[in-house]
Design brief:
Length: 525
């Protein structure tokens, strides 16, 4: 069996350096031309299992026992040169974030050539392999493109190159670790179609790690569900999704946000008749990066207690619009009115009251939280900005904020590295709420979260909205917008192409771009 099937894992165990079991008795196999999706929440062990297929263990962990056969050879029995020949040759990896996996100092052509040279290729044959690989992922194969640097390419282009490099050595097994996380739906659809085409043409065995079950429904043949380091369920995609045998799998499926067009009306529709008193008005907003205008005459409003979804693909201008509203992008013109008074674009020109009244929560809490500050210190620093100085009262306010974002009091003394992604994002929300804002700008705050954690964060935001907090919710996730936002704005190439009540727009879109986004959104049948 281990020779006939390209990938076979038998009784894999992994421990941390303190002897704690991280992965327990995992066994799986992937046939030629088959895609096995491994799903589970953060900390389930899915990425640890995926990296072990290349003979790697994450920092602070070790592979303690088990066998991993690739083409009949146990990669765990290899060492030194033999293992390196397998890595990238017989088994390859498509990483989650291509922007951090490429060297910014080398052209993409040199990085592709470096990989091929490491596996024995040279001369004109190597150049032809590079051109063929780029054509296979629908990218230019000319010398000009090969001389470009990673920072000159979009995230979607970099991900295509990462996929091309994974296939270029004709490996038997390819591991894909969340390759579409953070991509807008149209780019995601393109990448998924590309992966399906390459798997079919190469007959490689693919292990696809993800928390996005709607993506699994598009790309996978079989599904393995992990919880606390164990496989709790394996089966065909149809069997696992239609008739899951484990309660945990059913919970994950129930937590997936549904597009309003796919089923019963979502909560925002029930509030559709409510008229909101405007708290923010944006008129004829124009914004530029350097000399290039990227937002063209955008106008909209957000009412008290209203959530407005700002949706669009990469490069649509939605994040720049949010940064203009919060004062983080001052190369702009037009007018901002907040609670009836004019507000300057530059954050340095805004009053202390205005700064407190408008807060932003960023996509990546790893970058917005100070790794050297405990949770309590991070939130307390924001609390003190309100003028509260008494230590006991500051501590009480920190505890109250932790309760409000549904975090246990024990996390107060922990640091960001001690928390899961969902917990870090809740800390970021608590810190923003510390200064008692009236408008919260959420910039893709759920894009990298597991579906169950995402559901908990959305539930928190719905509670805050019911308390009267206004929100500008920037995202590319249309199912999420249909759950949380009363109004929706669709942006394309820096302009608004459609706007209105969320359920009206999603049920009967008028613009072709909105229809394309709806068609491209992965969903469960």
């Amino acid at each position: 069996m281990t020779e006939a099937i390209p990938l076979v894992v038998q009784s894999l165990y992994m421990h941390d350096l303190n002897g704690r079991e991280i992965v327990s008795d995992v066994s799986l196999h992937v046939k030629r031309g088959e895609v096995l999706a491994i799903i589970g929440e953060s900390g389930s062990g899915k990425t640890s299992v995926a990296l072990s297929l290349l003979g790697f263990a994450r920092p602070g962990m070790r592979i303690s026992s088990g066998k991993i056969f690739i083409g009949g050879t146990d990669i765990l029995s290899l060492s030194g040169r033999g293992k390196r020949a397998f890595q990238g040759g017989k088994v390859s990896l498509v990483p989650q974030n291509p922007t951090t996996s490429f060297s910014p100092r080398m052209s993409v052509g040199k990085q592709m050539a470096e990989l091929l040279a490491a596996h024995g290729h040279s001369g004109t044959g190597m150049k032809q392999l590079m051109r063929d690989a780029l054509r296979s992922v629908d990218l230019p194969d000319d010398e000009k493109f090969l001389r470009r640097y990673p920072f000159e390419l979009s995230g979607g282009q970099l991900q295509r190159i990462a996929i091309a490099m994974a296939f270029i050595t004709s490996p038997q097994v390819i591991v894909m670790d969340e390759p579409t996380t953070g991509l807008d739906v149209s780019t995601q659809q393109t990448i998924l179609e590309l992966i399906a085409r390459l798997v079919k043409s190469s007959s490689a065995s693919v292990v696809y790690v993800t928390h996005d079950l709607a993506v699994v429904n598009v790309v996978a043949d079989r599904v393995a569900v992990m919880l606390s380091g164990r496989m709790v369920e394996q089966g065909s995609r149809k069997q696992v999704f239609a008739a899951p045998s484990d309660d945990y799998t059913r919970m994950l499926l129930d937590a997936i946000p549904r597009l309003v067009t796919d089923g019963p009306a979502a909560a925002p529709e029930a509030e559709g008749a409510i008229e909101f008193q405007n708290i923010l008005e944006v008129k004829n907003l124009r914004a530029a990066h350097g000399q290039v205008e990227v937002v063209h005459g955008v106008s909209f409003s957000v009412g008290k207690g209203e959530c407005v979804g700002l949706v669009g693909g990469s490069g649509s201008g939605k994040t720049t619009t949010g940064r203009c509203v919060t004062g983080l992008h001052s190369n702009a013109s037009g007018s901002l009115s907040f609670e009836g008074h004019s507000m300057p674009f530059a954050v340095s020109s805004r009053s202390k009251a205005d700064l407190s009244a408008m807060q932003i929560v960023f996509q990546n809490p790893d970058r917005s939280l100070n790794p050297k500050e405990s949770v309590a210190q991070s939130i307390a620093r924001a609390v003190r900005l309100t003028g509260l100085a008494d230590r006991a009262r500051v501590g009480a306010e920190v505890r109250s904020l932790l309760d409000r974002v549904r975090l246990p009091q024990r996390v107060a003394d922990l640091y960001p590295a001690d928390l899961s992604g969902g917990e870090r994002q809740r800390v970021a929300v608590a810190r923003a709420l510390a200064v008692k804002p009236k408008l919260l700008v959420c910039d893709e705050i759920t894009s990298a979260l597991d579906v169950s954690v995402q559901a908990a964060v959305v539930e928190l935001l719905l509670d805050l909205k019911r308390d009267g907090l206004a929100m500008l919710f920037i995202t590319h996730n249309l199912p999420l917008v249909s759950e949380i936002a009363q109004s929706i704005i669709i942006m394309k190439d820096g302009s608004i192409v459609e706007a209105g009540r969320t359920n009206d727009v999603l049920r009967s879109p008028n613009h072709s771009y909105t229809r394309m986004l709806l068609d491209a959104a992965p969903r469960l049948n």
